[in-house]
Target: Murein biosynthesis protein MurJ
Amino acid sequence: MTVTPSRTPRADGDADGDVDVDVTVVSSARPTARHGKRPGKASGGSPEPPSASGGFLARAALVTAALSVAGSLLGLVRDQALARLFGAGRDTDAFLVAWTVPEFAATLLIEDGLAFALIPAFSMALARRAQGAGGDPVRALVAGTLPRLSLAFVAVGVLVAALAPQVVGALAPGLPDPALAVDCTRLTATCVLSFGLAGYCSAALRAHRRFVAPAAIYVAYNTGIVAGMFVLGERWGVRSAAVGVAVGGCLMVAVQLPSLWQQLRKRGEQAAGVAEEPRPLGGAVVATVLLFALCRQSQVLVERFLASQLPSGAISHLNYAQKVAQMPMILSLMVCTVTFPVVARALAEGDTERARDRVRRDLALAACVVLLGTAVVVACAPQMIELFFQRGAFTARDSSATAGVMRVYALGLLGQTLVGVLARSYFSTGRASWYPAGAMAVGIVVTSWLGALCVTPWGVYGIAAANAAGITVTALVLLAGTASGPAGTASRRGAHRVPRSVPLHVPSVLRDLSRPVGAALVATPAGAFAGGRFVDPAAGLAAGTLTAAAVFVLLGWALGAQGIASALRSVRSATRRLPHVRSR
Model:
């Protein structure tokens, strides 16, 4: 049964047309030990509105996914423009070394690091607001954190620009043209500030159940890069892409500011009473999430360090392969982007059982999405790369090398997705947890050791294989850390305390994952066979994709994969109200 959101859209609507729901659950309301249900009244006597419904989450996930797909497609256009204008050689290798800065900044400040620290903090502030705390805890949190974080972003950006020669020398000591990479690094260093502000806005808006503006940031970002290359490419060469990174970072902030300002002003006008002192964002919490994100992104450093010693173009082949192969992983994590504030809010209110159920469903759905994408990527890699990139300076030899690397790299996509989902289960508690960083460090050691061992005999293929092995080990270590014993036991005990992570029953999770894995193992050769029967890459890609998808869905349904049934229910729930939305 679909539960309607606790608040319907107002007649006047919102300026940005965003998906909005206000979930005000008093934190003193807890699930009973026997049934796990919350009472209908909070301790203060006010009615307790229901939490975000499955229909709302499905619609929010679809909106987020649609805008993320648009951003990914523009990212593909960006990579196509880079390949067409500058090929896969010395210049693109130099720019991609400099692109390490925005890649790190995106992971640390937008996608993983800052979001893992800020969304639980904003969720706690929203819970305190619902309890009737004096003043507005949300605005107090912004006032207490944003100025300090902004100064830190500026300082780090200036430091990166000043140390650009040393940064390039450490990242790629074998680079043939370090001067070009230094110039690009100094231009991309501006993204430390812009990405930091964009990540802060995204975390605040998502905690408020506002998803449209945060999901649109990569549309704005890639638009800036593409425009920079085409406007300045002839005059400045590959430096134009670095200029585009700087412009795109500013656009990421600009698309979110109106929505965030509206939320803070609207909520601030409703606040009453004497404002309380803001609860500071714990330094240990920030340190643990940033260290985890830094370790995770260090895989890129290992890859580029090893690839810089190979012939020119190796870094570019790895980059193009990753950008295409990661699309299924990005799509698979869209549902977690929407549900992470829900999990954090549930733990802030003491409802561990609801958080555990949400994480298990997220794991099942994300695994199905990424394994379907993995089957398609492995089956149709040559057709994808030829269709997307083989033009201009990007030759057939480059296509062959990139497709081979992409197939190997795709073997780690399930591990990438599991790490993304499971990390949220640790950091949604709002507590400092060093375990995820330790798990990621183990994976980095595996990646580095295997990469150094395999790069000489197998080149870029050995680097991609080491990446897949390292991230898979990390996922298994993270999953082991969530062990809760018999299903349901930990959730009842955890209803009265905040656990280290959302507790999961590991054997049940592994059993759930085995079903879509089996479906993917059959769908991959079926898709490769269908796609290989066509000479035209577009026809081969279409045939391979449709065949792999059909086999995966049918076999997964027959095996009882929970994520497939959940996805179909979510689509029905999200589309059930479309006629009503159009009529409004």
User: Anything to note?
Assistant: DSSP finds 25 helices and no strands in the chain. The first helix runs from residue 54 to 86. Residues 1-51, 271-275, 485-496 have pLDDT under 50 and may be disordered. The chain has two domains: 52-281, 287-504.
